[in-house]
């Protein structure tokens, strides 16, 4: 046996010692900077490892459980025909826009970075309208389920530019509606639109968007419209509910037979009965509160609209206040329902654009061919107060301690301000295909009969369903935006 020389032994020992030192150093490095620690930095469009700040907009009152500001005022959204650079990545734009946006940066610990915190980093409801040459996802000829009054092109409207304006939130992108993505997310589930004729307008928009990838089966009846998509077992339903609360016509107190009575503290029982069949509900209401009705709270008549015969009695609740109460009532009832665990989206007040009068007193939206420009939005006092009362009703519902975590399944889709700029999106005088219809003002300047409340299809209303898809995606994918 040959023994190694002392010099050779010392060299081996030195090598072993160096290797051990390297492993110790590497272990410490991995503990302090684990692999993937810079992922968050790259995700937010930066190339440096940094603490991620979550951005919360005080205007985004639909995604927080706290009590955000109800002030709906904001800078006028800019109007531009410039399209975004298709070569710029979405993540990069998100990183840049969240830095320069109007939201306030709030630094949070990891324990506080909840789903809702992530969700609020992009406010969907403040941004601008931009002209998209690609045009809409469907045409009036490619969708058979389209109420004729909203078929503006089929009714002879001469311009088409109103179909091309798309909504771009300030802090991120709102993707074009992806029908296949929607059916994938909603596989085996049912989405229900509940409300008045504007809710029907939105439901038909959703159906037109989905119809482009699959023809559904009609499974509806007199009580409820229902359309079934076989490939994904998705059901789209619609229920009519003018006020979302209990209504009846029988005599009550000093209110006679025939006048509609509303129990503002009781939800529409038809909605409550149907809820277990639904997984996502989109609620909307408000415009029927301009119609004659009697308001009842705690089994006592407290007010009325276009009805209050006994002037000696004090009227405590007007139609605007009644609207806010009804919103709170239906949301609490849905959130407390023992057999409904789904997502509830409250779409805010849809603004009308009657100028010079109401729908029956010469109001008009004739000749509007593109969105209003920045600074040109005329404040509508009724729209503002109805939106405020609706938002207040929503906030009171989510603040109810009895709801607990269930309040997180209530979302406010705040479209009112953005759609105040879309006076071009209504049918106006193009409400029917009658070739003899009057579409221009008469010699005395009197405008023709027209609809400045509902929305042309295709048109701005399709944006609502892009927002619905984004809200559903955030909810089902854990709030990632």
UniProtKB/TrEMBL annotation:
Localization (cell): Membrane
InterPro entries noted in UniProt: TBL, TBL_C, TBL_N
Keyword hit for Membrane: yes
Basic and acidic residues bias locations: 80-100, 433-443
Main subcellular localisation: membrane
Chain ranges of the Trichome birefringence-like C-terminal domain: 174-470
GO terms for cellular component: Golgi apparatus; membrane
Keywords: Membrane, Signal-anchor, Transmembrane, Transmembrane helix
GO biological process: leaf senescence
Gene Ontology terms for molecular function: O-acetyltransferase activity
Pfam family, one: PC-Esterase
Domain (Trichome birefringence-like N-terminal) ranges: 121-173
Composition bias type Low complexity, residue spans: 64-79
Record field: transmembrane: 12-31
Ranges of Acidic residues composition bias in the record: 108-118
Coiled coil: none
Region (Disordered): 57-118, 423-451
Membrane topology: Single-pass membrane protein
Family assignment from sequence similarity: Belongs to the PC-esterase family. TBL subfamily.
Name assigned to this protein: Uncharacterized protein
Native organism: Eutrema salsugineum (Saltwater cress)
Lineage: Eukaryota, Viridiplantae, Streptophyta, Embryophyta, Tracheophyta
């Amino acid at each position: 046996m040959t023994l190694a020389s002392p010099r050779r032994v010392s060299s081996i020992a030195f090598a072993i010692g160096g290797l051990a030192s390297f492993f110790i150093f590497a272990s410490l490095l991995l503990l302090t900077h684990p692999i993937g620690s810079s992922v968050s930095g790259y995700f937010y469009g930066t190339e440096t490892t940094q603490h991620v700040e979550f951005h919360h907009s005080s205007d985004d009152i639909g995604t927080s459980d706290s009590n955000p500001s109800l002030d709906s005022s904001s800078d006028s959204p800019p109007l531009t025909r410039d399209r975004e650079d298709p070569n710029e990545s979405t993540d990069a734009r998100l990183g840049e826009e969240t830095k320069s946006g109007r939201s306030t940066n709030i630094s949070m610990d990891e324990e506080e970075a909840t789903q809702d915190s992530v969700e609020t980093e992009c406010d969907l409801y403040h941004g601008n309208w931009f002209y998209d040459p690609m045009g809409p996802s469907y045409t009036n000829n490619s969708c058979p389920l389209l109420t004729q009054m909203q078929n503006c092109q089929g009714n002879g409207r001469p311009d088409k530019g109103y179909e091309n304006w798309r909504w771009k939130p300030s802090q991120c992108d709102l993707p074009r509606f992806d029908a296949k993505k929607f059916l994938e997310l909603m596989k085996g589930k049912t989405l229900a639109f509940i409300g008045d004729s504007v809710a029907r307008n939105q439901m038909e928009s959703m159906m037109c968007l989905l119809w482009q990838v699959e023809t559904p089966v009609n499974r509806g009846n007199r009580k409820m419209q229902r359309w079934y998509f076989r490939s994904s077992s998705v059901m789209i339903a619609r229920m009519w509910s003018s006020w979302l609360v209990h209504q009846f016509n029988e005599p009550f107190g000093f209110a006679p037979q025939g006048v509609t009575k509303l129990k503002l503290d009781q939800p529409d029982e038809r909605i409550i009965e149907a809820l277990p069949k639904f997984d996502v509900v989109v609620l909307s209401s408000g415009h029927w509160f301009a119609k004659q009705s009697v308001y009842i709270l705690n089994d006592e008549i407290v007010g009325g609209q276009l009805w209050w015969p006994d002037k000696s009695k004090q009227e405590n609740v007007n139609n605007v206040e009644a609207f806010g109460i009804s919103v709170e009532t239906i949301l609490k009832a849905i959130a407390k329902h023992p057999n409904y665990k789904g997502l509830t989206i409250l779409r805010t007040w849809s603004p009308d654009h009657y100028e010079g009068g109401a729908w029956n007193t010469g109001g008009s939206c004739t000749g509007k061919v593109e969105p209003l420009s920045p600074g040109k939005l005329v404040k509508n006092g009724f729209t503002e107060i109805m939106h405020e009362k609706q938002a207040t009703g929503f906030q009171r519902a989510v603040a109810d301690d009895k709801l607990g975590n269930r309040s997180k399944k209530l979302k406010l889709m705040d479209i009112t301000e953005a759609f105040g700029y879309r006076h071009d999106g209504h049918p106006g005088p193009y409400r029917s295909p009658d070739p003899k219809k009057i579409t221009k003002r008469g010699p005395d300047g009197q405008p023709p009969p027209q609809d400045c409340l509902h929305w042309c299809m295709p048109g701005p209303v399709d944006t609502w369903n892009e927002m619905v898809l984004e809200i559903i995606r955030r909810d089902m994918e854990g709030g990632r935006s």
